[in-house]
Write a structure and sequence with these properties.
The structure holds two protein chains of two kinds. Chain A is built from three helices and six strands. Chain A is of the alpha+beta class. Chain A is globular. Chain A starts with a strand and ends with a strand. The mean pLDDT of chain A is 91. The model of chain B has no long low-confidence stretch (mean pLDDT 94). The chains are: A alpha+beta, B alpha/beta. Strand 5 of chain A pairs parallel with strand 1 of chain B, so a sheet runs across the interface.
């Protein structure tokens, strides 16, 4: 899954969808994930990088990560590769 | 090694440019970690999850507030504990200890009150379904029988011939108090003359001690003045009895129906902001009685049968998160081990739900489901709630009324009930059910053995 080309993400966690005009706000963890996704890192790599920095177990991260991806799909911000 | 950062669930929130919320409602949910200084995690560790908790401290404080509201405005006030609201023996006994009589609506409850040590002449027997055996026992025990309909009235007159004890009776009166819906299914109507007719039949029979007048105008009544209207009408009847029969009734029973601070489904504002206080109800009722034409030398005792408003705040239901699910609409949902079968009041209240431990400040509109494999098992359609993990605990507040009597056993055992005493010690007051406690009542025909 990757972030659509037209989605702009600011450094302060502001997301803008130029197709719909909708805007979104990200918390810090979400910003990091979106940044890695924009850099075309794969899921395993992203989760590994987060676990290096944050105190979180695999299951908790997995649940949170996939819930986040569901939200990206829901908001139509992502597309399948 | 460098300490790792605290992980926060990744969140994306859509920014909605709209009219700001003029009430500025807080959407950050404060955790409830303790009830009366007892840690919730300790209660669940000892008694399991889910578990009902009753705070003796809150029961006492609420009772004292209610009593003070009425007794500072009226000379003679007597509370009678409404058994149907919560007839756990420990709860009933606490109210009796505080000075409440018992108000029962069935033979089962009547016997419960007797076994709780209530003096029989301090039991008020209400309700439409009293068997002949129940009535005879109540007559012989000198309990106060509140007559609901004419069949019952004539049954009592007939039973009076079979015993030396004169039945002590009151009639239940229904009336238009200016609020909707008008309850006219219980008792005798004031406006159409049925109530006066019933009083005349009883007084002229000379077979009963006509003790008082009773009403119960509805449930969750959100205005005090409706009680004022009801009290005026009962006072008018009392004056008519005085004039025609030279008889002074001993009491006026205003029943219950006071709202608790819970929020009804569909209400615009929370119940904490809209429900009247005990003082509001007391002001309306006592003003009506004191301002009536009742002979001041014979002011009747004011009886109150409030249940919900006394016990609701003292009850908590503790539970645990079973899992979380993102619905196809994108909405967050969480599944608790608390079903609507044990939280009956969730059908009419938007119950307050709190995490039992500190969580992220971020909340998301969440649907809260129970564990029953049934589509109707929804505790809250939508409330801002933080993301919680499996096994973490939650607290539902203000559930002391009706849930512990109207609960249904379904697919699993009903939970334990614990009372926290004023010293902060927990006491098991009802055991968690077991397979045996349910199956023991069943019988299997021989041919299926």
């Amino acid at each position: 899954m990757k972030i659509k080309e037209n989605i702009a993400i600011s450094e302060s966690g502001f997301v803008f969808d130029s197709n719909t005009g909708d805007s979104y706000h990200l918390n810090t963890t979400a910003q990091i994930i979106m940044k890695f996704m924009k850099e075309d890192k794969d899921e395993d790599e992203i989760q590994e990088l987060i676990m290096e920095e944050y105190d979180v177990d695999t299951d908790t991260l997995n649940l949170a990560y996939y819930d986040f991806l569901t939200m990206l799909t829901q908001f139509k911000l992502s597309e399948n590769e | 090694m460098m300490k790792k950062k605290i992980f926060e669930k990744p969140i994306i929130t859509k920014i909605n440019a709209g009219v700001p919320d003029k009430f500025g409602m807080q959407n950050q949910i404060k955790a409830i970690t303790h009830i009366d200084q007892v840690a919730i995690k300790d209660i669940i560790a000892e008694y399991g999850s889910p578990v009902f908790v009753i705070s003796e401290q809150t029961m006492e404080e609420t009772y004292e507030t209610a009593l003070q509201a009425f007794s500072t405005r009226y000379p003679k006030v007597q509370f009678a504990w409404s058994y149907k609201t919560n007839y756990l023996n420990a709860v009933c006994r606490k109210y009796h200890q505080l000075g409440s009589w018992a108000e029962v609506v069935s033979g089962f409850e009547y016997h419960k009150a007797l076994s709780n040590g209530v003096e029989p002449n301090k039991i008020i027997f209400n309700g439409p379904d009293k068997s002949d055996e129940d009535l005879l026992l109540a007559i012989e025990n000198k309990s106060l029988i509140h007559i609901d309909h004419f069949e019952e009235l004539y049954t009592i007159l007939k039973l009076a011939n079979t015993t030396e004890n004169k039945p002590k009776v009151a009639i239940r009166v229904n009336m238009d108090t200016g609020v909707y819906p008008m309850w006219d299914r219980f008792g005798f109507n004031y406006e159409n003359g049925d109530a006066w007719n019933a009083i005349n039949r009883l007084m002229l029979s000379k077979k009963v001690d006509f003790m008082g007048l009773h009403t119960h105008i509805g449930t969750y009544i959100m205005v005090g003045w409706a009680y004022g209207n009801a009290a005026k009408k009962l006072a008018d009847l009392a004056v008519k009895i005085e004039k025609k029969f030279n008889h002074y009734i001993k009491y006026i029973d205003m029943g219950g129906g006071f709202a608790s601070k819970n929020t009804l489904k569909g209400a615009f504002l929370p119940g904490t902001d809209t429900c009247p206080s005990f003082d509001d109800y007391a002001e309306s009722i006592t003003n009506a009685l004191i301002g009536s034409d009742i002979n001041p030398e014979h002011m009747p005792t004011l009886f109150l049968e409030t249940g919900r408003a006394l016990i609701d705040d003292a009850g908590y239901l503790l539970g645990s998160i079973i899992g979380n699910k993102r619905l196809t609409s994108g909405r967050a949902s969480t599944i608790l081990d608390i079903g609507v079968n044990i939280l009956f009041t969730s059908f009419w209240y938007d119950h307050l739900l709190y995490p039992a431990e500190e969580t992220s400040n971020y909340t998301e509109d969440t649907t809260v489901y129970g564990p029953l494999c049934m589509n109707i098992d929804v505790i809250r359609e939508s409330l801002p709630f933080p993301n919680m993990k499996k096994g973490q605990h939650v607290v539902i507040k203000r559930i002391g009324a009706y849930n512990m009597t109207q609960w249904m056993q379904f697919i699993t055992h009903r939970p334990a009930i614990v009372m926290i005493d004023k010293e902060g010690k927990t006491h098991l007051v009802r055991k968690r059910e077991t397979n045996e406690s349910i199956v023991n009542e069943e019988l299997v025909p021989d041919y299926l053995q």
